[in-house]
Specification:
Elements (H helix, E strand, L loop, with lengths): L34 E2 L9 H16 L7 E3 L2 E3 L2 H7 L8
Antiparallel strand pairs: 1-2, 2-3
Length: about 90
């Protein structure tokens, strides 16, 4: 099981792993595109799925699971936080 993004010492910055933004385009998303961690799919192995869910429950219980939106190496809890930090960002979250 790969490690999920965690808050380390309350910090909301991504410092390891795949922290970069999804590549943008010059017309609509000049600053890049935020990553959003809301989905799970292809849960075909029940034992593996249980391990993932157990790991998520444990990190959620410890309050160390990073918020679901990642943009410019910073995590955001919701679209309002993201828009406040980047008001010009064209984002549909």
């Amino acid at each position: 099981i790969k490690e999920q993004p965690l808050q380390r010492g309350g910090q909301r910055t991504c410092k390891q792993g795949m922290c970069g933004d999804i590549g943008g385009d010059p017309k609509w998303h000049k600053e890049g595109v935020a990553k959003v961690f809301y989905t799970a799919h292809h849960a075909v192995d029940p034992a593996q799925t249980k391990r993932y869910l157990d790991q998520l429950r444990e990190t959620e219980k410890k309050k160390i699971l990073a918020p679901p939106i990642l943009f410019h190496n910073k995590f955001f809890a919701n679209s309002e936080e993201l828009k406040k930090a980047f008001p010009e960002l064209k984002c549909i979250i």
